[in-house]
Structure formats: structure tokens, C-alpha cells
Design a protein that fits this description.
The complex is a heterodimer of chains A (120) and B (452).
Chain A (H helix, E strand, L loop, with lengths): L4 H18 L2 E2 H11 L8 H13 L3 E7 L5 E7 L1 H28 L11
Antiparallel strand pairs in A: 1-3, 2-3
Helix pairs in contact in A: 1-3, 1-4
Chain B lengths: L2 H15 L6 H20 L4 H12 L2 H12 L3 H6 L4 H4 L7 H16 L9 H25 L4 H19 L8 H23 L6 H38 L5 H26 L1 H5 L1 H27 L7 H24 L8 H31 L3 H28 L5 H30 L6
Helix pairs in contact in B: 2-3, 7-8, 7-12, 8-9, 8-10, 8-12, 9-10, 10-11, 10-18, 11-12, 11-15, 11-18, 14-15, 14-16, 15-16, 15-17, 16-17, 17-18
Chain lengths: 120, 452
């Protein structure tokens, strides 16, 4: 499945905030987690993730600290801040609204293309 | 991991670090990412060489990465242009050739020179003095509007703004050299410069980034103007010496032609240089901010001691009060300017503490000035000058108080504190404009300072 660039970009912020709400994390682990969450459908590039992390850090939604990995390598860990949590709550409401609207419309018109069913 | 792999990664690091838009810490983070990926791949059975190649491929081309980082690391258009921006980013800025700049500079020189043909000791001279701020920057506004086209509505609004401001500055019949006359002269340039900001930031004027870019532009423009003025001064001095030696009196030509035309042209050339030679000053701005912040902090300390030692804390000399105000405006400007010189990944250090000290000193001085003004108003009643100074000091007080509070949060490395400080400082820009309009338009009639 090819997810358009715009959609990937739009969902990137809530995804990162959500993953950091699960636990503190770092770049490579976040990309892996995105893959897991989307069953491999969402493949993020580093050029997408790191600038986004830095932007969120500048906005105060997340906080980065330098630490070291299990093998002693320099690694930057990110943590969700209170502001970030509030922003995530907003994102959740917005995405739920969009998802519910689409789902309601599809149910009403009995449209069903996905892998689970055939077009009725 | 083996040495061979380390060598390969070091080579990659060296290449990445050469990119202007990727900082060393960015590369540190990417290296951790790359190594993490290689570990996963080798665990899955790939050889280290294979894993390195796959991970590199996945990381994307260096150009792409550098480009993506540039968007976030620099809010500055030029870096994106240097990188070879995509079309949508490149649109909106014209080529930075010198010819258009020179043409606009000639127009600016003519604009500044023309009013001098009128009766300079009479009406024309008066009008010239009052509208000098507008006349001086009109060509810069025109140049910026041409250089960064930003939609018809914006262009027309700014053009109307320039004309209206010119009209407002000349609206009232004021006594030449009177209080209202002088305060109009001093305040019009501030409003005029905000119009330059509108022309510079275009449709981005509502955003903090757009306004910060304008502040940065202003700081760099001031540096270039200082350099141009220095050079111009030396040239004029040499010309005067040569002319005098040849038995010609250079005074008239220099004062009536070279100086006004030079200033009128230099303001445009300064604006062009900021745009065209950005990276030169970009390295200088943080240095200047760091040199002058300690000096200003020291000055505030000395001023406070002088004032307290004089024993006239409540009835300061009028001229000392004026000096205090001038230096307070400079301090507020310095705080704003050092914000633009701050790099995004800067860690908290001595400089932030110094800034807190600077703002605290300024705040003390401002409170002292306010107490004095209020005492004067209490003793002698409201006058035009006292109202103007009171208003300016109250705005400064709000600015400094909130800045001090936000700066202490910056020193505590609080998340997003720098952004909040930027927002606060740039939100004040329109407030300055509004106050200038009050001073020019509302106060002179309120204090019956109009010529009858």
C-alpha cells in the first residue's frame, strides 16, 4: 500500500507524541515502533523523523537529553513534556473526529473496499 | 563492531559534517541511528559490509537528508536557496543582482535629495525634518516589495501605509523645534521601520518566524549601515582635505549633495547587502551580541551606582533621565537581537545568566525612571513630554519584566522557553507601532500643541 506523502506528514506528529507517551525513546527505536504499529505499512525516513523531533523539541512538546546506549554509544533520548501531552490530547480529538466522520459515512453508504470485504 | 566499519562510518560522518545545514549534534544522532540499524541487520544475518550498505541506502542520499535538516535548522531562506531549493521555496525571492539594488539606491538618494531643493529654512525644511523617517526608508520598502513579491494586497497595503505615515507626520501645524515637533521626528522612524518589516516579512508578518527574520534583518542592516557610514565618513574627510588643499570650499557640496544622497542610497545598499551577503554577517551577529551584552550590563551597573550615589533618586536631572531612556531602548533592542543570534541547539550557559543580569539591571533602571516621571507628574501635572516618556517606559517595563521572567526559565533549560521568549518579543512589535501612532496623532492635539 502506498500512503501519500501528505498523509504520512500529517500523522507524523501525533504518532511521535503517542510513542513517547508510551515511554521515553530515541530516533531509531521510534522508527521501528512506527513500523510495528502500522504492520510495516508506514516507512519513515530519517529525513522525516529527526527534523520533526527537533521541531517538537523547540516547541517544547518533547525534551531531548543526551545519554548513552547499552553499548556505550552517545544517544539522544526524548521525553514527552506536559505541553506535549496536552498537544497529544488535541491531536487525539482531531483524528478521532476525522476517523469517525469517515467511518460513519462509509457505514451509511455501505462502502467497503478494504482487505476485509468486497465492495457491496 | 570492526575497525573497517568504524572507518566507513567516520568517512560518512566527515561528509555529513561538511554540510552547512547539519550540525555536529545532528550527525551524532544520525550516527547512533545508523549503527542501531546496522546492528539489527547484522543480527538478522547480514555481514557488516552488507549491513552498512543497506543502512546507508535506507538513510537516503546525503543531499536529501541535508535538505530536510535545513528546513528545520534554519528558518532562513538563503540556506534553502544555496541548497538548491525546490520550486515552491525558490519562488518569492528574486535574483540578488547588484543592478536593481543600485537603481533603487539611486531612487532613494533622489528621494532624500529632492526636498532639499525647497526652502530648507522654511516650510520645506520643517516638513523634511518631520517626515525624514518615511522619506529615508521609502526606497528600502520599495526595494523589498520588489525583491520579495508577496501578493497584491500586501504590496498595496504597505504602499498605502508609507503614504499615510508620511501624511500623519505632517498632519498638524506644530511649532518648529517644539516638544511635539521633536517627538514626531523621533517616533516617525520607528513606525516607518515597522513598515519596512511588513515589506520584508510579507505575508509571514503574522508568524513569529517571519517577525524574527525581520529582527535579524534589522540587526544585520544596522551592522552594514555602520560599516558603510564609517567608509563614507573617511571618504568625505579625505575629499574635504583634498578640496581645501586645492583652495576649494567643499562644505556646500558635501553637506548638501554627498551626505544626503549617500544616506539615501546607503539604506538600500545596506538592505541589499543583508540579503546578498548573508553568511558573512551571520557569523558576526552572535559575536557582537556576546561582546555588547556584558558591556551593557556593566553600563547599567555604573548608571545605577551613579544615580543612587547622587542622592537625587527621586528628582533625577532631566538630561540624565533622557540618557536612561535611550539606553533602556538600546537594552531592549539588544535582548531582542541576541535572541536572533541564538542557535537552536544552544545549551544554557553563562550568556543566558548574563542576559538575565542585563534585563534585571534594565528593569531596575526603568523602575527608577518611572518613579521619577510619576513624581514629576504628581508635582507639576501632566505635560506632553511626561506623557510620552511615561508611555514609552511603561511599555519597556512590561517588555523587560516578562522577558526577565522568561529568561530565568531559559536558564533553567525549560522546554520551549526560548520559543515563548521569541513570541513575547515579537508580539510587542505591533505594540510599538500603536504607541507611535498615539504619540504622533493623539497626543499633540490633546495637549493643545497645535499652531493656531
Amino acid at each position: 500500500m502506498d500512503i501519500p506523502r501528505d498523509l504520512v506528514a500529517a500523522s507524523a506528529t501525533p504518532l511521535v507524541l503517542t510513542i513517547l507517551a508510551e515511554s521515553d525513546s530515541y530516533g531509531y527505536a521510534i522508527i521501528k515502533r512506527v513500523g510495528e504499529l502500522s504492520s510495516g505499512q508506514l516507512e519513515w525516513t530519517e529525513g522525516l523523523l529527526y527534523p520533526l523531533l527537533h521541531r517538537l523539541e523547540r516547541q517544547g512538546h518533547i525534551e531531548g537529553t543526551w545519554g548513552s546506549s547499552e553499548t556505550g554509544r552517545k544517544r539522544k533520548y526524548y521525553r514527552l513534556t506536559a505541553d506535549g501531552r496536552a498537544a497529544l490530547a488535541d491531536h487525539q480529538v482531531q483524528w478521532r473526529t476525522v476517523a469517525t466522520a469517515l467511518e460513519t459515512a462509509w457505514t451509511a453508504t455501505k462502502l467497503n473496499f478494504g482487505p476485509e470485504g468486497v465492495f457491496a | 563492531m570492526t575497525d573497517a566499519l568504524d572507518t566507513q562510518i567516520d568517512l560518512w560522518r566527515a561528509h555529513m559534517e561538511r554540510r552547512a545545514t547539519v550540525t555536529t549534534t545532528d550527525v551524532d544522532e544520525l550516527e547512533d541511528h545508523l549503527r542501531g540499524h546496522i546492528e539489527t541487520l547484522t543480527a538478522a544475518g547480514l555481514s557488516e559490509d552488507e549491513a552498512f550498505l543497506v543502512a546507508m541506502k535506507r538513510l537516503g542520499s546525503q543531499d536529501d537528508i541535508a535538505h530536510e535538516f535545513a528546513r528545520e535548522n534554519s528558518k532562513r531562506l538563503w540556506k534553502q536557496l544555496v541548497l538548491g531549493a525546490s520550486e515552491d521555496e525558490a519562488r518569492g525571492t528574486r535574483a540578488s543582482g547588484w543592478l536593481p539594488a543600485v537603481l533603487f539606491a539611486i531612487a532613494g538618494a533622489a528621494l532624500v535629495r529632492l526636498p532639499l531643493f525647497g526652502d530648507i529654512n522654511g516650510w520645506a525644511g520643517q516638513a523634511y525634518a518631520r517626515a525624514a523617517g518615511v522619506i529615508g526608508v521609502a526606497a528600502v520598502v520599495a526595494y523589498l516589495l520588489w525583491r520579495r513579491p508577496s501578493g497584491r494586497t500586501m504590496t498595496i497595503s504597505v504602499a498605502i501605509g508609507v503614504v499615510v505615515l508620511g501624511g500623519l507626520s505632517l498632519m498638524y501645524p506644530l511649532h518648529t523645534g517644539g516638544d511635539a515637533f521633536i517627538s514626531t521626528m523621533l517616533h516617525v522612524p520607528v513606525a516607518a521601520w515597522l513598515l519596512v518589516g511588513l515589506a520584508y516579512a510579507g505575508d509571514r508578518w503574522r508568524t513569529t518566524e517571519g517577525r524574527m527574520d525581520f529582527v535579524r534583518f534589522t540587526g544585520e542592516w544596522v551592522i552594514y549601515m555602520t560599516l558603510l557610514a564609517l567608509g563614507g565618513g573617511v571618504l568625505m574627510g579625505i575629499s574635504a582635505l583634498v578640496a581645501s588643499a586645492a583652495g576649494v570650499d567643499p562644505g556646500t557640496v558635501l553637506a548638501q549633495w554627498v551626505l544626503p544622497c549617500g544616506v539615501g542610497g546607503a539604506v538600500v545598499i545596506g538592505a541589499w547587502l543583508v540579503e546578498a551577503k548573508r553568511s558573512v554577517i551571520e557569523n558576526m551577529a552572535p559575536v557582537l551580541a556576546r561582546v555588547f551584552t556584558p558591556l551593557f550590563t556593566l553600563t547599567f551597573g555604573v548608571l545605577l551606582i551613579v544615580v543612587l550615589a547622587s542622592g537625587h533618586v527621586l528628582d533625577l536631572d532631566r538630561s540624565l533621565l533622557a540618557v536612561c531612556n535611550a539606553i533602556l531602548v538600546l537594552a531592549a533592542g539588544l535582548v531582542l537581537y541576541s535572541l536572533t543570534a541564538r542557535s537552536d541547539d544552544a545549551t544554557t550557559g553563562w550568556f543566558d545568566w548574563l542576559q538575565v543580569a542585563l534585563v534585571a539591571g534594565a528593569l531596575a533602571l526603568d523602575l527608577l525612571a518611572l518613579v521619577n516621571i510619576v513624581t514629576r507628574i504628581g508635582d507639576g501635572g501632566w505635560t506632553f513630554n511626561r506623557t510620552v516618556v511615561l508611555g514609552a517606559n511603561l511599555i519597556l517595563l512590561a517588555n523587560l519584566a516578562v522577558s526577565a521572567w522568561l529568561l530565568t526559565r531559559v536558564t533553567r533549560s525549560e522546554a520551549g522557553a526560548v520559543l515563548r521568549l521569541e513570541r513575547w518579543q515579537t508580539a510587542l512589535l505591533p505594540v510599538y507601532g500603536a504607541w507611535v501612532l498615539v504619540v504622533i496623532v493623539a497626543l499633540p492635539p490633546a495637549f493643545s500643541l497645535l499652531h493656531s
